[in-house]
Amino acid sequence: MYSIGNLSRHTQVKIPTIRFYEDKGLLPRPDRTAGNQRRYDDTALKRLLFIRHCRDLGLPLTDVEGLLSLEGASGGDLNQAHEIAERQLADLRDRISRLRSLEAELTRISKACDGKHDHVCAVLHAFGDHNECAGPHAHSK
Amino acid sequence: MYSIGNLSRHTQVKIPTIRFYEDKGLLPRPDRTAGNQRRYDDTALKRLLFIRHCRDLGLPLTDVEGLLSLEGASGGDLNQAHEIAERQLADLRDRISRLRSLEAELTRISKACDGKHDHVCAVLHAFGDHNECAGPHAHSK
DNA sequence: TGTAATTCCTCTAGTGACTAGAGGTTCAAG
DNA sequence: CTTGAACCTCTAGTCACTAGAGGAATTACA
Ligand SMILES: [Zn+2]
Ligand SMILES: [Zn+2]
Ligand SMILES: [Zn+2]
Ligand SMILES: [Zn+2]
């Protein structure tokens, strides 16, 4: 049996986060001591490690919830796991391509100024002026 | 003079967001009509476009604020604009490299399952097990 | 001038995924 | 049995907005 602090140390998930997951229903309410403190078993440990790894992979909690509900499922239901993986991958690729075009734009902006700063700074100007940009950009995360 | 709706149309910034920027001090409080409605001039329009472009480039509002305070500055103070640009660029590159390693990992996970789903799904399993992963990952945004 | 449609006002609360802190209780070691 | 660490609940704060309620002002048209 693990106290919440021990569980935290084993999983690298911070204590308030563990309680937050419990509130959200991602972790079942654990047993308590006579003094009302939480005690976890290995099942809870595994479940929390699962959540943590999904989060590290960038999945939102709603998807983590979906995957957790698939534990013990079989047959076609398991295709939902594939869907989640592919959706996340597509999202990731989209984000990467947007971030790369932002990188190009910011590189240009960074180099724009000669550093003399007599009256103006070309970097400052470029930050405000989209006309100098190569293409559109919507950052979104 | 623009009403808030007109300003919104000219800048593609949503009305509640304009009011939010005013609350945050990024936009000065505009004049009001006798009936208490906001009226903006071209200076406000330009300032809002500046903010919007910075946001599109991914700058947090604190940096936008810093850049706005540099308008009209000269000399060494303008180096702060360069610092902001380079910090943002470094942050961007860091994010891209982390997202790319995530992409590799998710690609592997996606391909892990043969789709038979007799009893288990290898995708679902891979989501929970970091031992199969090539390296560490901390997603963070 | 009347009236109806549109736009505007303030205020509160919600998003996602936590994090920080206050004020108090329980546990474990010596 | 005492001390100090770890635990409890609850509230509020983070970032950058977004949505909605309930009401007032403006604009367009007849
Ligand atoms: Zn410069
Ligand atoms: Zn641009
Ligand atoms: Zn599968
Ligand atoms: Zn992993």
Plain-language structure description:
The structure is a homodimer of 141-residue chains. Chain A has 141 residues and is mainly alpha-helical. Chain A is 57% helix and 3% strand. Chain A is elongated, with a radius of gyration of 23 Å. The model of chain A has no long low-confidence stretch (mean pLDDT 93). At the A-B interface, α3, α5 and α6 of A face α3, α5 and α6 of B. The first copy, chain A, binds a DNA duplex (30 and 30 nucleotides) through α2.
Gist?
Chain A is an all-alpha fold and 141 residues long. Chain A has helices at 4-11, 15-24, 42-56, 61-68, 79-111, 122-128, and strands spanning 31-32, 38-39.
Could you name the key traits of this structure?
homodimer, 141 residues, mainly alpha, Multidrug-efflux Transporter Regulator, Chain: A, Domain 2, two-stranded antiparallel ribbon, 6 helices, binds zinc ion, DNA-binding
